[in-house]
Write a structure and sequence with these properties.
Blueprint (H helix, E strand, L loop, with lengths): L1 H10 L10 H13 L6 E9 L15 E2 L30 E7 L9 E4 L1
Antiparallel strand pairs: 1-2, 1-3, 3-4
Length: 117
């Protein structure tokens, strides 16, 4: 679960990852490929939408934001390239939600990743 993943990182003095741009995403996807992570897979990252925030279909992250941890500043502007969703998130302004990085088991010509609530 998201909570368990976040807790596991915290116990190791770390935090869930967030991405500020496409180069970081490509580096992460490369590391996951090197590690031979079996697909399909859902990896929890620091992508969250608080209960007071609404879903915004026009934004790449649909109203989700990166959790800032340890005084770091999470990126506010998100490149359109990071706006790939496997399935559109539930439209809501009432419930806190989190999203993970979904790695797909697809042919090379298809997208291999997307966000999944």
């Amino acid at each position: 679960s998201y909570t368990a993943a976040s807790g596991a990182c915290g116990r190791r003095r770390g935090s869930l990852a967030w991405l500020s741009g496409e180069p970081e995403l490509l580096a992460l996807l490369g590391l996951l490929a090197e590690a031979a992570v079996p697909t399909p897979a859902l990896l929890w990252v620091g992508l969250k939408r608080n209960a007071s925030a609404c879903t915004h279909a026009e934004h790449p992250l649909r109203g989700f934001t990166w959790e800032a941890v340890g005084g770091e500043t999470a990126p506010r502007e998100v490149p359109a390239a990071l706006g790939r969703w496997v399935k559109e998130p539930v439209r809501s302004c009432l419930i806190a939600r989190c999203a993970g990085l979904h790695l797909a088991a697809t042919p090379e010509s298809s997208p291999s990743w997307g966000w999944k609530e």
